[in-house]
Design goal:
179 residues; mainly alpha; elongated; 74% helix
């Protein structure tokens, strides 16, 4: 784990000197922060909902693609597995990083913009708060990522489970009702 791993062990595994790690990163917290920044940027690029909207021309399809690409990235990236297994105190500490916060905020803002486009075009139900809707979509994505990286707490196959979650997210539970 993070707390028991030393910079010397990291340097040895990377095939570099401990001094080089300290020179470039300052310590293991900064190294982890740099890895997190790089991973968040790559994840954000893979799940860029604005680009998906430009390609599909359809808000629902852009959101579906964003969710599926987010999950594919999380599944294929070994660092994502490690991040979801980190001590919560480590993750909370990393949230103080300005670049990490900026990456998360940029991704969140892109989603708000697409939700607003959907509301304005009538593709998304009028009256929804774009920020709260974004928060719900992001929460579902994080729950799906957590499930797919450690599926023992929910019974279901990946593809069927994700499809069902998207159907509920986009269609709601009750016909003809609005929030």
């Amino acid at each position: 784990g993070f707390s028991k791993t030393t910079v010397e062990e990291v340097a040895q595994a990377a095939g570099v000197s401990k001094g080089l790690v300290y020179h470039h990163f300052g310590g293991k917290t900064e190294l982890l922060e740099a890895l997190l920044e790089q991973t968040l940027k790559a994840w954000s690029d893979a799940s860029n909902v604005v680009e998906h909207l430009a390609k599909t021309g359809n808000v629902r399809r852009a959101l579906e693609t964003m969710v599926l690409e987010s999950l594919a990235f999380a599944r294929e990236n070994p660092l994502m597995h490690a991040l979801f297994q980190l001590d919560p105190h480590v993750v909370l500490g990393l949230s103080s990083s300005a670049s990490v916060r900026n990456s998360i905020e940029k991704s969140r803002q892109r989603l708000v913009e697409v939700i607003e486009v959907g509301i304005d075009s009538g593709e998304i139900r009028a009256g929804l708060d774009p920020i709260q809707t974004t928060n719900v979509v992001r929460l579902v994505i994080m729950a799906l990522v957590e499930h797919l990286l450690d599926p023992k707490w929910i019974d279901g196959t990946d593809e069927n489970f994700v499809t069902h979650c998207l159907q509920i997210l986009f269609g709601g539970l009750f016909p003809g009702e609005s929030a």
